[in-house]
């Protein structure tokens, strides 16, 4: 069983931790692209 997550709260936390939008992109997009082999869009 998975626990419930509040996505809005989680994205707010990331926004507070990584104030720069470029850094947020690296954290949320570039890392997943490299880790899972996604194709960059």
TrEMBL record:
It comes from the Bacteria. This is Uncharacterized protein. It comes from Caballeronia sordidicola (Burkholderia sordidicola).
């Amino acid at each position: 069983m998975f626990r419930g997550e509040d996505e809005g709260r989680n994205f707010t936390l990331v926004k507070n931790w990584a104030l720069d939008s470029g850094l947020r992109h690296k954290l949320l997009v570039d890392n997943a692209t490299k880790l899972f082999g996604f194709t960059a869009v």
